[in-house]
Amino acid sequence: xxPRMTSPAPSPAAPRQAGxxxxxxxxxxxxxxxxxxxxxQLFLMGFQTFRQIELLSNKQAALTFAxxxxxxxxxxxxxxxxxxxxxxxxxxxxxxxxxxxxxxSEGQRVVRIYRLSSAAVSPxxxxxxxxxxxxxxxPSGSDFEPLVTSFAENGFGRDEMSTDEVNxxxxxxxxxxxxxxxxxxxFAFRAVNRNDAIx
Length: 199
Hints:
Elements: H1 22-76, E1 79-83, E2 88-94, E3 109-116, E4 127-135, E5 144-158, E6 169-177, E7 184-192, H2 194-198
Antiparallel strand pairs: 1-2, 2-3, 3-4, 4-5, 5-6, 6-7
């Protein structure tokens, strides 16, 4: 008969580990810190992108609204002048009933003056384009209301070199804020005064 093989006696169980070592904790903290810094960087980039989109949206709205308003008034004006010293565009036209009853009545002469505000609305919004309106006379200080913001300082004017008053073409220039750093984008648009173009 063959001798029976006996297995060796089991070794005593290894002591059970009760927690993490200091090195494991430091590695976990470092990995957590890297993840938090990455998430913070993503949040900051998203916020900056949102702010740039907001500025671009404000600029586009300002440009669209201001050009449509000015083109409409320049087209129908029978008297049109620009004071370069004051930076004011003065538009006069008769009210043919399209104005609201709260303002000028039908047949009265409407006088509108466009100019930039005397101070910036805020550093991020820049200056506002103000419009004053009165009937049969120039508007006073209390008649002016802001139309749109996002203009740079001295960002509204008339390009006198390109303006062809004989044919009724007026070139109006805008300088709008493009970033929080004070960078600007310059625009010029042409508006034709119908009365001068027909003469």
